[in-house]
Amino acid sequence: MTNKIKNLFSLEGRVAIVTGGDGRLGIEHAKALSVAGATVYSFDTVRSDALAKVATHIDVDITEPEQIARAVSQVIKDSGRIDILVNNAVIDPPLPKEGEAGWEAYPEFPQAQWEKEISVGLSGAQYSLQAVAPIMIKQKKGSVIQISSTSGITAPNHSKYPAGRFKSAAYPTVKTGLLGLTRAWASYFSAVGAPDVRVNALCLGAVNFKEITPELLEKLKGRNMLGRPASPDEYHGALVFLASDASAFMTAQTLIMDGGQTTW
């Protein structure tokens, strides 16, 4: 029984793609998949040294379907299959320092920034799915994980930010859109005879990368039942669960891991 349970969570022999895999959270996703046994590729426009021993970086702008198609072809050439897609890439600018521009009031929010955030976070997820779908359908098996957020369920709480600063309206729009995209694609795979190509969303709460100001960290303590943001590695288990056979009977669903925040 012990080995059977361990095998449920094993990703040995599987191939995974993480979009935005060279970003802070993407690196954590790649680490989790790699430790579980997967061969991991990162599709990103930046390169992180922290990913060097964890995943293979492929330079990809996921707002360009042609670039995704070329990168997917490279993965197939190198590894022969694609079992896991983690749609993680997102534009989420940090809170600007005093005197810096950014986080404008919604009537003044720049059109270019809106379009960039939607293009990367939502359109990029769609394009990535379109590229891997034929492969997973042919295999008749696969797991797609959409990295959403509590912002996909509840509204931004602007009171925790300095006066005159507002979390981008595009961010919760992207994260909410990913939940709809999850259900749509799961239904599609079922309709075309590939129900074991599963699509689920993982809604994450705040993550403490040790860059949160003491003032903001204090405000975050009251945001959930655990009284703190998550450490980056606390999402590893949930990601491996969704990627592995441990969640084989789960599709079109949203797994919320937020310390109880959205229950209040």
Q: Keywords for this structure?
A:
264 residues, Rossmann fold, globular
For the record, the CATH class is Alpha Beta
Uncertain segments: none
Strand adjacency order, main sheet: 3-2-1-4-5-6-7
Distance between the termini: 38 Å
The class by helix and strand makeup works out as alpha/beta
Mean pLDDT: 96
H and E order? HEHEEHEHEHEHHE
Spatial extent as radius of gyration: 18 Å
CATH homologous superfamily assignment: NAD(P)-binding Rossmann-like Domain
What characterizes the major β-sheet? 7 strands, parallel
Q: Any guess at the CATH architecture? A: 3-Layer(aba) Sandwich
Q: What percent strand?
A: 5-15%
Indicate the percent of residues in helices.
25-40%
Number of domains: 1
Q: Tell me the overall shape.
A: globular
How many helical stretches?
7
How many beta-strand segments?
A: 7
Q: Under CATH, the topology is which?
A: Rossmann fold
